[in-house]
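Checklist before submission:
- one chain only
- standard amino acids only
- sequence pasted in full

Submission:
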Amino acid sequence: MMPYFILFSYFAVLFASLWKLFQKAGRPAWAGFVPGYNVLVWLRISGKPWWWIFLFLVPGVNLLMFMIMNVNVSIVLGERAFKDHLLMTVLPWLKIPQLVFSDKPYIGPIPAEQRKRGLLGQWGDAILFAVIVATVFRTFTFEAFTIPTPSMEKSLLVGDYLFVSKLSYGPRMPMTPLTFPFTHHTLPFTTSTPSFVNWFSQPYRRLPGFGDPERGDAVVFNFPEGDTVVANFQNQSYYQLVRDHGRDKLNDPNYRMLNMVDGQVRQVPGGGLLVRPIDKKENYIKRCVAVAGDTLEVRHGAVFINGQPQDLPEMAQYAYEFVLRDRFNERMLKEQYDISPDDIGPGENGGVSIPLTEKNAAKLAKFSNVIDMERQDHPKGYGTDFHKLPYFPNHPDFDWSEDNYGPIWIPKKGTTIELTLANLPLYERAIRVYEKNELSVSDGKILINGEETSGYTFQQDYYWLMGDNRHRSQDSRFWGFVPHDHVVGKAVLVWFTKDPYTGIRWKRLFTLVD
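Returned file contents:
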């Protein structure tokens, strides 16, 4: 509440003073009271281009623009020292009315021929304008994204640099507009220092786009379970860590858990918890396999939507376990099949596990050193010694696995479902967290916002996303639905790509994302 009070008090002071500034500049006083037009006049008497008014529409950028224009009030009224500009920047509530209602006459902006600015000032102007333009561009049109994990191989590769189109589904207005430029959630050269402030935020709003996510789209989104992360385990789901270790232990920043550090497994302290708003959650990229209103099921690794089998992406991979007479030649696998040494790991039955396309699996099965090959297919009820209840909805009543999953209905905006104790685990997080309702169960009755109910109407659409690397992907099978307000954009272009082992992949440069 306090940030909004400070902001609104600034606007009250500003618009109560503009009429006097306009009067000094020979403009009609009434123009200071007309929203929008007063900004145009303010730009004009400050010597700024009219189209700057569009920059005032961008959250975050508009706050910077008001700071710039505050300084220009000092300039056009003749106070042009550095200290004057500094005071106008940090104390506009006091400085604007003091200066505007003083005897200082309007002398206008500094003529171009009289501007004698040092190199630092010239570079400062250029950098500031570049930051503003780049921020507007990445907020409303395209943003760069890097593929950090192999969950989409071999469709998208580790080391791919993408352009993500925010126009495809409509750009979101920034929900945390006060943030350090060109960062996502962490300051440069730090591992856990937030690059944004929580005390000033905006509600979720999205501008119109060309459509909504469709089946087959490579979608970038904010990780739904990323509202809370453990500082030194940010690539792992906090909620899975809670199931594995307990909430009390994770609240202790000195509690130690196993993690990979410099290629070795070590005991690492948790480091405390970080809380992030929607637009500052970690960015993920997966394939949209089901949209709102669909019923999804996975049978022996194959996806069925509304009872119909779906085509597997051409370069999708499954995990195959090999029983070998002797080891594979890793250099040959990389050169001929683009299988990296990191892809080769221990199998569940004593063999070697490798993620492969169906085509490459058929080729490797014919190698003379291969005794047997079997594709992973975990049955329902499959358990793991490493994680407790890893498959969404992470509840003991559901015995699904990543290979045999569902059926599950994907929530659709405006659709009302019958809500029972049996299906509540599937939709509890959507109702309680994503749609911000109070939900509880008392004496076998479901209460939403304190009222007993047997049904619920969803407020937004949801999607089901999976990695093309089906057995090496943490996706919706593990953490559930992706709400529409978490959708960032659609991956459209690989503009650069570099293999960690072999260098630049020249043939993939400037290729469209399939």
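Reviewer check: The first helix runs from residue 2 to 24.
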